[in-house]
Amino acid sequence: MVKLPQVRKTIAYRVTEPVVQLLAATPISPNALTLLGFLVTVGAAALIATEHLLAAGLMVLFAGFFDILDGALARWTNRTTRFGGILDSTLDRLSEAALLLGVLVLFLLVEEQSVLFTFLAKKWSILLVGIALFVSPLVSYIRARAEAMGLECQVGLFTRAERVVVLVVGLLVNQIVIALFIIVVFSFVTVGHRLVHVWQQTKK
């Protein structure tokens, strides 16, 4: 039976392979791609805060491409380093926080009657952003903590890739609140799944 992490890796490989081969012939480093992807994400967060949602969605999608490209380039050119891994993980967390802060600023600035709040009232939508800000990083934290203890923890439906895809769709169709609701619910599910998975390994 094909596992979800394998499916993600296969898709990422197919998407990035042609570009990685071109980049491998240039002096561009994996860390430079990581930093560039982060800067693009910050730009997307600014677009969200100023209610340019369609452009923000496209920019987040573009930044996500850098997110899978940096690691692929590092492996292809045999330039994987421990610092590169830490930098990538750190900027991933900052990128996600920046996007959610962009959404928070947007919600604070727009009027209660805005079409953004057709799913939830403004105050509950703002609370939803706050919940997303702490539950989303937990998904990655549990995996990092487990792997630091020598445990396997790649299970779970809603990794960062899925959260980004849902947010992008929400931005493109102007349904950010619904996207946030989905992200929060399935992030909690994934946190629970990973905790149970790790607990089962420690009981052996």
Question: For this structure, what is the CATH homologous superfamily?
Answer: CDP-alcohol phosphotransferase transmembrane (TM) domain
Rounded mean pLDDT is 88
Radius of gyration, taken over Cα atoms and rounded to an integer in Å: 18 Å
Number of strands: 0
Task: Assign the CATH architecture.
Answer: Up-down Bundle
Backbone shape = globular
Q: Which series of helices and strands comes N to C?
A: HHHHHHH
Describe the main β-sheet briefly: none
Poorly predicted residue ranges: none
**What's the CATH class, please?**
Mainly Alpha
* Total helical segments: 7
Concise overview:
78% of the residues lie in helices and 0% in strands.
Can you tell me about this structure?
The chain is mainly alpha-helical and 204 residues long. It has one domain (4-202): CDP-alcohol phosphotransferase transmembrane (TM) domain (Four Helix Bundle (Hemerythrin (Met), subunit A)). The protein has helices at 4-23, 30-49, 53-76, 82-109, 122-148, 160-172, 176-202. It is globular. The mean pLDDT is 88.
Descriptive keywords:
78% helix, 204 residues, 7 helices, mainly alpha
Q: Secondary structure elements and their pairing?
A:
Elements lengths: L3 H20 L6 H20 L3 H24 L5 H28 L12 H27 L11 H13 L3 H27 L2
Helix pairs in contact: 1-3, 2-3, 2-4, 3-6, 4-5, 5-7, 6-7
